[in-house]
C-alpha cells in the first residue's frame, strides 16, 4: 500500500526533532511505570558529553554539523578557514582581497580618479560580500533548526543590498531614486533569472533531472507573484492617470498619491514578510526542516564537507564585523562614483538593473549554485526565492520608509520597461517550477532571458532632468 502524503502539520517541530535525535531509543518508553527510570536516563544523558562526526564534543544548543571543536579566536585558523571558504568558486573570489585596501586607499588618496575608484571598489566588493556570506553560512550551520538557519543565512546575505540602498538614498537623495528603483528590480531579476538559471544548469550538468518539494517552489513563486504585484501596481496607477484627460487629477496630485500609495504598500509588504518568516520558522518549521535535512543527505560529498574545519562562534562574529566594515566603506566609495560613470555614457538603468545587483549578490549566487551542483536543489531554490522575496517585501519597503523619514519622495513609480520585465520574469520562473522538476535547458532559457534584459537596459536612456 503506498504511503499517504503527509500534511505539513504532521512533521515534527525542527527543534524537537533535533532533541529527539540526541535522545536514546527505547521501545518501552511510553509506559507510566518506566517514567522514574526515564528521568534517571535523561539526567545521565544530559551530564554526558555529545560528540559529532569528527569526534568533537558538541556545545549544548549547537548543531553537530557546525561544531568546530575549538573555542575563542585563532587568527591563523581564521584566515585559513575563511580563505578556503565553502566552495572552489568562493575560494577563487577570495584571491581578490588585495583589491580591498587598494580600493579604500584610492578613494582617499586620489579622489579625482573616478573611473579607477569605481572599478577597484566594484571588484573589492566581491571578496567582502563573499566573506559576509561565508560567515552567514558558518553561523547557520551551528543552528539546530534548518528552517531558521536558511532564513538567517538569506538575511545575512542581503545585508550588502540593504547597505547599498541606504547609502544611495542618503548620499544622493532625489538624484539616486532612479538608480535605487532599478537596483531593486535588478536584484530580483538577477536572483530569479541569472542565479536560478545557473543553478538549473549546474545541477542539470551533473544530474539529468532534479526534483524539488512543492512546499519550497509553490510557496516561493506564489509570494513572488504577490510581491511583484505590490511593486508594480503603484507604477500602473501613476502611468494610467498621468496626463489622462478622462480623470480630474493633475500631475502634482498623481505624484503625491503615488508616494502615499507606495508607503502604504511598503507597510503592508513588511507585515507580509514577517508572516512569511513566521510561517517558515515557527508554524511550519518542521516541514522545511525535514526538507532541508533530506537535501543534506542527498549530497554525495557530504562526508568531505563535514570533515572541513569550521570557524568558532567567536570567529564567526569577527568575520561578520570585518566583512560589514569593509562592505560599508566600499559601498560608500562605489555609490559616490556612480554619477561620474553615468556621465561617461553608462545609463542609470544599466548601473541599477545590472551592475549593482551582480556585485551585491555574489555570495548568495555562489552558494546556491554550489548547492544545486551537489543535488541540494531544495536549498538552492529556497536561497534564490528567499532572497528575491526579502528584496521585494523587506528591503524595498525599508528604502521607501527610510526615505519617508528623510523627506525623500522614494516610491514604487518604476519605469514601464522595468515593471514589465519583472512581471514576465516571475511568470516565466513560475512556469518552470510548476512541474517540480528542473533541467539544464530551463536554466539556459532563464539566463538567456536575463541577458536579453541586460542588453535592453544598456541602451535604455536616462530620465530627463526635469523629472
UniProtKB/TrEMBL annotation:
Gene3D superfamilies: NCX, central ion-binding region. Keywords: Ion transport, Membrane, Transmembrane, Transmembrane helix, Transport. It holds the Pfam family Na_Ca_ex. One of its GO terms (cellular component) is endomembrane system. Residues 116-281, 317-458 form the Sodium/calcium exchanger membrane region domain. Residues 1-69 are annotated as: Disordered. It is found in: Endomembrane system. GO terms for biological process: intracellular calcium ion homeostasis. GO terms for molecular function: calcium:proton antiporter activity. The chain crosses the membrane at residues 115-135, 147-168, 180-202, 223-241, 261-279, 316-338, 381-406, 412-433, 440-460. It is a multi-pass membrane protein. Residues 54-69 have a biased composition (Basic and acidic residues). Coiled coil: none annotated. Belongs to the Ca(2+):cation antiporter (CaCA) (TC 2.A.19) family. This is Sodium/calcium exchanger membrane region domain-containing protein. The lineage of its organism: Eukaryota, Fungi, Dikarya, Ascomycota, Pezizomycotina.
